[in-house]
Amino acid sequence: MSTPSRRLSVPEFSHLLGATVLTRRIAAVHVHHTLPRRRDFRGTATIEAMRRYHVDTNHWADIAQHLTIDPEGCVWMGRDWNRPTV
């Protein structure tokens, strides 16, 4: 089941990190870059379009990434941290 997108400022994200309980071992962290370009980013609409592509086209359970960092430096929550990707 897809989780709703939630945009966090850096201080909000920092607080969340301290309050999160992980129920699985994290063995690696992967950082990658994707479209859109900065000028094409439309906030929630862009994040939800990525989620729809992953769910409707790729037939995954949710958006692939756990976090997305937007062009303004805010963090968007994606897949539940306790669920492995795809």
Characteristics of this structure?
single chain; 86 residues; alpha+beta; three-stranded antiparallel beta sheet; 2 helices
Average residue-wise pLDDT: 86
Specify the biggest β-sheet.
3 strands, antiparallel
Any idea what the shape is? Answer: globular
Point out poorly predicted stretches. none
Q: What would you call the structural class?
A: alpha+beta
Terminal CA distance = 12 Å
Rg over CA atoms, rounded to whole Å, is 13 Å
* Biggest sheet, spatial arrangement of strands: 1-3-2
Assess the beta-strand content as a share of residues. Answer: 5-15%
Compute the number of helices: 2
The total strand number stands at 3
| Pattern of helices and strands | EHHEE
- In total, the number of domains comes to 1
Please bin the fraction of helical residues: 25-40%
Could you outline the blueprint of secondary structure elements for this entry?
Elements: E1 6-8, H1 10-19, H2 44-57, E2 67-69, E3 75-77
Antiparallel strand pairs: 1-3, 2-3
Provide a descriptive summary of the structure in words:
- The chain is of the alpha+beta class and 86 residues long.
- The protein has one domain (6-77).
- It is 28% helix and 10% strand.
- The protein contains two helices and three strands; from the N terminus they run E-H-H-E-E.
- The chain has helices at residues 10-19, 44-57; strands at residues 6-8, 67-69, 75-77.
- A three-stranded antiparallel beta sheet has the order 1-3-2.
Outline:
With 86 residues, this protein is of the alpha+beta class. It is built from two helices and three strands; from the N terminus they run βααββ. The chain has helices spanning 10-19, 44-57; strands at residues 6-8, 67-69, 75-77.
